[in-house]
Amino acid sequence: MKKSEVVRPLLAGRVHSPRASGSAFAPANIALCKYWGKRDKELNLPVTSSLSISLGSLGAHTKVAIKDGPDLISLNGVALPADMPFARRLSRFLDLFRETPGMGYSVHTESTVPVGAGLASSASGFAALVLALNELYAWELDRTALSILARLGSGSASRSVYDGFVEWHAGAQADGMDSFATRMDVRWAELRIGLMEVSSAEKEISSREGMQRTVETSALYEAWPARVADDLVDVKAALEARDFELLGRTAESNALTMHATMLGAWPPVLYWLPESIQVIRTVWEARTKSVPVYFTMDAGPNVKLLYMEKDGALVREIFPAMREVNPFG
Length: 329
Ligand code: PMV
Prior knowledge:
- The chain is built from nine helices and 13 strands.
- The chain is α+β, with helices and mostly antiparallel strands.
- The strands form three sheets. Strands 1, 4, 5, 6, 7, 8 and 9 form a seven-stranded mixed sheet that branches. A four-stranded antiparallel sheet has the order 11-12-10-13.
- Helix 6 packs antiparallel against helix 7 (about 245-265).
- The termini are far apart.
- (3R)-3-hydroxy-3-methyl-5-(phosphonooxy)pentanoic acid binds near residues 34, 35, 122, 155 and 298.
């Protein structure tokens, strides 16, 4: 099934003349129970459900308008070359909404995510673009439909249409109409995320490529769906009981297991740098000294720490270069 076949019924009866522009914000998010592997590459339908925390005011502010000629896409005030992979991906996504093939869009995004923090720009970028298009065209879509549209841009973007804790339900339908995110009714004001930048270099293997290779070639991938199912139960129990130890342990082990499936792929997929391992070892050492800090990692070398506000001073002392995020602040 093509993306356009999903978009058409979603927007049926909602085509109005566009406003001058549409603007919106969407937060970045970090998965505590990861999405790794698609059952449908075209529609970004996942093999498993996943669960994330949005990063409060860290994310993308996007303004979209219609223009003549080719798309103009800028990030933090700098126009992106049209052949840059991210600009090409956005333009291909915008093809789904063009009224005539010749019309263009201007898309200006200001990102509040620290440059090189290792936070996927695609999740907040595609979610903010979809929310801004919803304003531009006055679609008045509900969050479920917006999450589905954001997913068509990037899987993890389906979770960035909400703040707080968010679950993306895998769904089972071929058209993906049951594969969208919902916001969880949990506020955990004491939770903190620490961003440890290890490298700001562009990753060599995109998450798209990395997950596809893992699904197709890694014998370890077979164990992944059952593991995610167990971890989702534990993460939800941890959120319900405000059990930080259970949350940290489950999120850390879930991330390590995801990376283990990648190592079993051929050619192998390894996003870690020596510095990543140094941070991991320092986290483990901190725990032997009774500092409750855990980590998670995505498709890159940077490490994200999880800790509670009360331990912030100790964690900052151990990781002076860390940037602290208060997801509910
Ligand atoms: O949405 P994508 O294609 O960038 O994939 C994101 C994959 C991970 O960040 C590694 C995990 C996740 O659930 O966000």
